[in-house]
Amino acid sequence: MPIGKESVVIRIIALFLFAVLFTLTALTPAYGQDALPSFSPQIRLLVHGTKVLKDMEEAKPSVGLGMWVIEPNILDANPQAQTTLGLRLSTNTTWIEFLGGGVVSPTTTGVFNPVFDVRAFADLGVHLFSEVSLYGDAAYWYVSADAPIKSGGKMLFKIGGEAEGAKTYRNTGGFFAAGPHVVIPWGDHFATMVAFQFRIEPTATVPIVSTVGRLYAIINF
């Protein structure tokens, strides 16, 4: 889908405003009160591929394959990649994927963390996405809701929010995080999303509160 000059300008302005917001948030703990939550920048890469094996007939969903390759944080000193593949059922406005795979890291040897993953999407005017992942040592979930902002029938960007959390099986480890985000599509196959989260991590005494600024790079094919 071609992107007009006006759409590009609006997208760049939105990215700039969020970049300023995250920069100010990151600098505040350094120059403000010590009690303010710490700030962590993240860059998350998501590659999503799909293949239809059987086209939709009447009200029946089409059957195909879904694949994900995810790098949770490119800025992490210990990078890791989550790769999953599985069954995909889809209609014109919804899809759900049942995936299996694992997480590997080039900084470790002989370590493979298996994962079972369920991801779903629905376009109800508002775009809804959810994910539940079960790892060998923890469970993770993520949900988001976005309102499309359009001009001339073309989507300029989406405004919404997200929440995510994780819980280890054997101890109190885990976290909960939530905050707003903006999704900016740059074509049919690539989008960026900028998110700001407040995060809470439980401890034996006082919960740790922090903030996260995350840039998502999302590739679909």
Could you explain the architecture of this structure?
The protein has 221 residues and is mainly β. The protein has one domain (5-220): Beta Barrel (Porin). Helices cover 12% and strands 62% of the residues. Strands 1-2-3-4-5-6-7-8-9-10-11 form an eleven-stranded mixed β-barrel. A hairpin with a 4-residue loop joins strand 9 (174-185) and strand 10 (190-201). The longest helix is centred in the first third of the chain and has 27 residues, at 5-31. The relative contact order is 0.16. Residues 28-33 have low confidence and may be disordered. It comes from Candidatus Uhrbacteria bacterium RIFCSPHIGHO2_02_FULL_53_13.
Strands, helices and their partners?
Blueprint: H1 5-31, E1 38-54, E2 62-71, E3 81-90, E4 94-104, E5 113-124, E6 126-135, E7 138-151, E8 154-168, E9 174-185, E10 190-201, E11 208-220
Parallel strand pairs: 1-11
Antiparallel strand pairs: 1-2, 2-3, 3-4, 4-5, 5-6, 6-7, 7-8, 8-9, 9-10, 10-11
